[in-house]
Structures are given as structure tokens and as C-alpha cells.
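Exercise: predict the fold of this chain.
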Amino acid sequence: MTETTVPAAILNALDLADASWRPHLLRGLEAVAQANPGYLPALAVDSYLPTEGRLFAAFAQPLEKVRYVLVGEGPYPRAESATGVCFMDGAVGALWSAGGLSKPVNRATSLRNFMKMLLVADGQLQPDATGGEAMAPVAAAAMSNGSIQTLPELQANLTGEGFLLLNASLVFRSHVKPVIDARAWLPFLQVVLEVLAQKATPPTLVLWGKIAEELRKLPETGRFPQAVAEHPYNLTFIANQGMQALFGPMRLLRRR
């Protein structure tokens, strides 16, 4: 499969990727086709998330700026939420409300726990007290203390730190088990990792959840520093000291 034979719907989605990625993403698609020739043609005529050509939206981060690769499981299973960028729920605008985190953040369990982990890392919450009563004064202060106010600001801070925000499966289909789509995209991600491993300083792989951890089976992952944690939909993620140590110094909740 070459650029001229990649299904048009898949090929057109490359428009949202930075130009530095295009030849590598095409090679990744060729690897998918070699491993499973029927996969991309079937996907192109199927219904999947993300919509609006955002399949490769994560690759808007230029290759040369990548310092971390955060890998989640797959897109949110809702059209308004799946953006092609892992953990960035498109249905979320404001992060805070008068009584704590906003309702859309609280509905997005993984994002909610990530936010609480950042607050614990910043000393604003105690790991054993992250419920509504503890959150209320933190949220009230966040309205005026220089904290970011929206999810796009959080995404911008992550991008500014050099994060490539990937999913182990680039698509979600309600009628297909996520692990099956993730397995189909593994050759694609192998090419992505091969390219990133060639950087003078390989980025850190941040792997969240069992599907993301499947990447550790690839020989390329041995060439990267790694930070591994349970998926953030687990409450235990909030108190994960490894994640606090990684993200705490970045002060991601502070407006840049």
C-alpha cells in the first residue's frame, strides 16, 4: 500500500499532521496494510471515532519538539469528546466550577483523576482527601490565582512541554473490541517509535493502562526512558508517586 492506494478518507486525515510527520505516518500506514491488508479499506468505509478527519490530530506536534510520548488506550467513545488527542475531551471547556471541578471534567473520569493527581503533586490536595469538600476551596482559589481555566489551555501546556498525546488505538468503534483495533495499529506505532528513537535524546514514553503497556512488547520501546502507570480511570492513579514526580515540576495547571 502506497500513498496512491491508501484509502482517500485515511489519506486526507494526514492534513492535520505536521509536515515533519507525513512520510513517517505513510510508512506506518504501509506497515498496517502489510500486517492486515483488509484493515484500512474496511475502516475507511466504517463508522469510527474521532470524526472530522482528526485521525492523526495528535501529530500536529512537530517531530522535532517531541520530548514525551503519552500513550492512552483509545479515543473517548463519544463523538463530541473524541478529538484524536489522548485524554483531551472535546466536550470539556471550563475546568472549574464554584464547588470543585466542572461537571464535564467530573464526567470524564480519566481527566478528573489526572487533574486531581496534578493538584496533589502541586501540594494543593492531600492524596487521601480529594473529594468535593477538599476540592471546593481549591477550585475557588483557581478562579483567580493564575491557574488555567480551560481544557485547551491544559492541552497547550502539555504540548508546550513537548508531549505527543497518542492513543494505542487511533480509533474507537462501538462494534469492535478496543484491543482488536489497538492490535491493528501496533505496526503503525512501531514505525512512530522507530522514528522517535532516532532523536539525539529519545523522548520519555509515558504509558497509561494495559493496552498502552502492550507497546512494551515492541523491541523499539527498549530504547526509551519509560514511566508506566495504571490507567487514570483508576482512583489509585491520583496518588501515583511516579506520575507526581514526572508531572509535578511542569506546573501544568499554571497559566503560561
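Check your answer against the key: The domain at 8-78+158-236 is CATH 3.40.470.10 (Uracil-DNA Glycosylase, subunit E).
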